[in-house]
Each structure stands twice: as structure tokens, then as C-alpha cells.
Design goal:
heterodimer, A: alpha+beta, Alpha-Beta Plaits, 3 helices, elongated, B: alpha/beta
């Protein structure tokens, strides 16, 4: 939790002087539903990462079955995830209907 | 700019709109974005001639609407430029949304507003509905009785609006047609003297400064919106001091002293009229006449309506016995905007307790003659003798069907 500034401490007109400061803003509190990764079913196609409007799908480096280094889905960053459900909808594993790689559950308040 | 005149000030016959265009030429702003509308048209027309003649270096943006004009002004100001525009009536109404954006983004955009009635029914003549409706938008509002005052206010505008303790947009208001289209003689100051007085424009976190990237106009929710608005309010409060400081320096430089308001034969006045803009000229005429007959009458003429100098005005009205306010705009179902401000000032800051009376006049250019003003003063005298305003409160003057 960042300390909120007084009006005297703010630059005029709401100008934001720091690049990339949106990353500090907790949009996760807006969520009512949240996506959950089921890594046992994930094929790591990265469709969820590509569609996520908040860049909330966290990736990690791994070795694929051919021995090459590539990115794998690690988890969801709930500090930024607003729970829009786009990742759940775009997940090709979910679309197949045989398994769930991204579940969508009521967020605990 | 190479073709600045040097030398002495000139006495010139010029319209109010023409005078403001001359001030803009002398200020030579970086950007002007404007859309012509009656009766402010001559300002934009004259200025576009200065651009075409190379008399200014200004980037003149011929936009497709006033909404775009103010948007372009805000963008250009955020990019670090000194920016000016001109408009009237429905033109400013079309800027409405952006008026608030300019003020909340603390962009010192300068506007020459020529007061004109708002449509319904369509009318092109003078009243103050446009600027009075925008009084809560966060713009500094300076009013001008004459061509000279409109010109002088515009010359002072940049230094007030751009002051680091203020940093707010500012509109200089003058009466449509009555002033904007009437030729009066006035003193046009020397180009270089004006340029030296106005001084350079210092950008504030310009969006064109790629070495220090910034974000303007971001979303602001429950956690910060009100802090930003509080800062905006402080700019307005500081403006009271800065307007006076710049006005005092203007007096030292050019010899004409302005204050937050003008007090005309006020010291011993029992009856005080309060008014804005050109009608003050007629009121002064009547006051001079009545003073010769021994009537103790005076005028308080508003210059700065936003910020409103409550304390100073309240004190100035401390010795009055009756204060009669003339509003040239209507707030339907309420007293006029000037009357409510004067009442607040008197109640909180006047040591005396004068009677307060408010009238509406002049909508859509309806004239108020010397005879009407004499009538207002004699009615004020009757109220004063009776010790109450009674049913004379809230009269509309010079309206067929009403007794006045």
C-alpha cells in the first residue's frame, strides 16, 4: 500500500511525472470473479497472456519437450487482474471442453 | 518578430474587438485556435490577418468547432505554448466540457470573451449569460467596461494566468456590440513595451519534453480527484493576490491603475449600485448628475468575478445604506449570480447592514438608459426611506408588462 499524498504534495493539474506508474495502482480490488490457472492442463500457448488487457498473466522461463528454452504461464497477478475473464474465454483448452486450464471462480471478498 | 513598432503609445480610434486583436498581436502567442462567432468575429478576423501578413509567429489553427478550438488550446498549452482564443455565447457553450478540462489541467489558456446572450430564442446581442454560466468552470474572469479596459486586461492576462501560484485559464470579458463593435479612442501601448511587460512563457512539464516523459489527463478516482480539485481552488485563492500585484505593476508601467473592483464615489455613498461591464459607464454619468443635486450615490464595478473578492467588497460596502445589484443574466428561479455574491460578501464582511436589492436587466441586448438608472436609484431611495425592500426585490428592468 502506497502512502497517499496531500494536495500540497501533488504537481498541478494532475500531471503524472513518473513513467509506468500505472503498475503501482491496484486494480485487483475491482474484481468479482477471478481466473485460476490449472497448470496440469495448460498447453502454454500464451493466448491468455496475449489477450489480457492488464498484462496480469505472469510468465516464466522453462524447457519444452524438444529441449528449447521458451516462456510458460506461471500464474495470475491478482494485484492487477480486474477479473474481466478474457483469458478464460480465449483459452483453447477451455474451448475444447475436455479440460479446464483457466478456471473462473467467485473472488473471495 | 521583426516589425514591432517602437516608440510612444498611440491614441487610436478602435473597436473593443479590434483592441483585443491588437493585444493578441503584441503578445504574439505560440498558438491561437479559434472558430469565429458573432460578436467576437473581428478578433479572429483581425488576428488571422496578422498571421497572413507575418506580423506574428503564431501557429493559427482554423478548427471546425469551438469544442475543437478549446481542445487544441489545451493540447498546445500542455505542449508548452502560450495559447489564446476568442469566442462568444453559443461558441463558449460548445466549449463547456473543455473549459473544465483546461482549468483542472491547470493550463493557462487565455480567452477574449465577447459577452452575448445564449440561444433560446436566438439572439446575437449582449448579456452575460455565457460567462456567468461558466463561472464555476474554474476560469479566472476579468470584466471590462471599455475598449481600453478590455485591452489592458488582456495585456495583464498572461502574467496572471501563468503565475506559478495560479496557473489557471483566464477569460477577459467585454460587452458584445456595445463595446466590441463601438469605436472609442483609447491608448494603444508600444509593441515592445507590451512584450516586455508580458514576458516569456515558461512551460510546465511540457508533453514535448521527451527527455522527461509525463502523462496529462489521466483518470482520477475517489482517492485523488478531490485533492487535485483542492489544489485548483488554491490557484484561484492565490489569484486574488496575483491579480492585484500584476495590476499594480501595470499601473507603474503604463499609468492606469486597476484593482479587483472599481469604487466610484463610494466613500460617503448611502445608495450603492453594483454592476458589471459597459453599463457602469451610464451609471457613472447618472451618479455625477445626481451628486450635483446632493444625492449620496456611488458605484461598485466588478472587475474580478472569479476569483470573487468577498472580503474587500464586503468592507467597501460597509457604510452603504442600500446596495442595489444589477445582473445582466438570469438564474431562473434564483437571484442573479452577482446579487448572490454581493449578498454573501455583505453578510460576512461588511460592518454595516445595508438593505440588499437585486434586479435583472439587459437580456438579449435590451438597453438600460440613463432614465432607467435614475429610476433604479429613486426606487432605492424609497426603499431606504421605508427601511425595507419589500416587493421591489427581483424586478426585471425595462420589460414591457412589468412596472419599472
Amino acid at each position: 500500500m502506497t502512502t497517499l499524498k496531500t494536495w500540497q504534495e501533488l504537481p498541478h493539474g494532475g500531471v503524472i511525472l513518473e513513467a509506468g506508474s500505472a503498475a503501482k495502482y491496484e486494480t485487483g480490488s475491482w474484481r468479482t470473479w477471478k481466473p485460476i490457472t490449472h497448470r496440469e492442463n495448460c498447453i502454454h500457448c500464451l493466448a491468455c497472456w496475449e489477450y489480457c488487457p492488464e498484462d496480469a498473466i505472469v510468465l516464466e522461463d522453462g524447457i519444452d519437450h524438444a529441449g528449447a528454452t521458451r516462456k510458460f504461464v506461471k500464474e495470475v497477478n491478482y494485484f492487477h487482474c480486474k477479473g474481466c475473464g478474457l483469458c478464460v474465454r480465449e483459452c483453447p483448452v477451455n474451448k475444447e471442453g475436455k479440460a479446464v486450464a483457466l478456471g473462473f471462480v467467485r473472488d473471495e471478498v | 518578430m521583426s516589425n514591432l513598432t517602437t516608440g510612444k503609445p498611440k491614441i487610436v480610434p478602435i473597436t473593443g474587438a479590434g483592441a483585443c486583436a491588437q493585444a493578441m498581436r503584441q503578445i504574439n502567442p505560440d498558438v491561437v485556435a479559434a472558430f469565429p462567432i458573432t460578436p467576437s468575429t473581428q478578433i479572429v478576423e483581425d488576428f488571422s490577418t496578422f498571421v497572413a501578413n507575418g506580423q506574428v509567429d503564431t501557429e493559427f489553427v482554423t478548427v471546425e468547432s469551438e469544442h475543437s478550438a478549446m481542445s487544441a488550446c489545451i493540447g498546445a498549452s500542455a505542449a508548452g505554448g502560450r495559447v489564446m482564443t476568442a469566442t462568444s455565447s453559443a461558441g463558449m457553450a460548445y466549449m463547456w466540457e473543455l473549459l473544465y478540462v483546461a482549468a483542472s489541467m491547470r493550463q493557462p489558456v487565455l480567452m477574449s470573451l465577447v459577452n452575448r446572450a445564449l440561444t433560446g430564442p436566438i439572439n446575437i446581442h449582449c448579456d452575460h449569460s455565457d460567462s456567468m454560466g461558466a463561472r464555476d468552470a474554474g476560469w479566472i474572469q476579468l470584466y471590462s467596461e471599455t475598449n481600453q479596459e478590455a485591452y489592458d486586461n488582456l495585456v495583464m492576462a498572461a502574467r496572471i494566468a501563468e503565475h506559478p501560484d495560479v496557473r489557471l485559464p483566464l477569460m477577459v470579458c467585454q460587452d458584445g456590440f456595445i463595446i466590441s463593435h463601438s469605436i472609442q479612442t483609447m491608448q494603444l501601448e508600444d509593441d515592445k513595451a507590451v512584450k516586455a511587460f508580458v514576458g516569456p512563457h515558461l512551460p510546465y512539464h511540457s508533453i514535448l519534453d521527451t527527455a522527461k516523459p509525463v502523462t496529462w489527463g489521466a483518470l482520477d478516482l475517489q482517492d485523488y480527484y478531490i485533492e487535485h480539485k483542492r489544489g485548483q481552488e488554491q490557484g484561484m485563492r492565490n489569484a486574488l493576490r496575483v491579480i492585484q500585484e500584476v495590476s499594480d505593476d501595470f499601473a507603474k508601467t503604463f499609468g492606469r491603475q486597476y484593482n479587483l473592483f472599481e469604487d466610484y464615489r463610494l466613500e460617503d455613498a448611502e445608495i450603492v449600485l453594483v454592476a458589471i461591464n459597459s453599463v457602469a459607464g451610464e451609471i457613472k454619468e447618472v451618479i455625477d448628475e445626481l451628486r450635483t443635486k446632493g444625492e449620496k450615490v456611488g458605484l461598485l464595478k466588478i472587475r474580478s468575478f472569479r476569483p470573487f473578492p468577498y472580503e474587500q467588497i464586503g468592507q467597501a460596502l460597509s457604510n452603504a445604506k442600500i446596495v442595489t445589484v444589477l445582473d445582466r443574466s438570469a438564474s431562473f428561479g434564483a437571484h442573479g449570480p452577482l446579487f448572490t455574491e454581493i449578498s454573501t460578501a455583505v453578510y460576512n464582511y461588511a460592518s454595516g447592514r445595508p438593505l440588499l436589492m437585486g434586479h435583472t436587466f439587459g437580456l438579449g441586448g435590451r438597453e438600460l438608459t440613463l432614465r432607467h438608472i435614475e429610476h433604479v436609484i429613486s426606487e432605492s431611495r424609497i426603499c431606504l426611506d421605508k427601511g425595507e425592500v419589500g416587493n421591489r426585490q427581483g424586478m426585471w428592468l425595462n420589460v414591457r408588462g412589468d412596472k419599472s
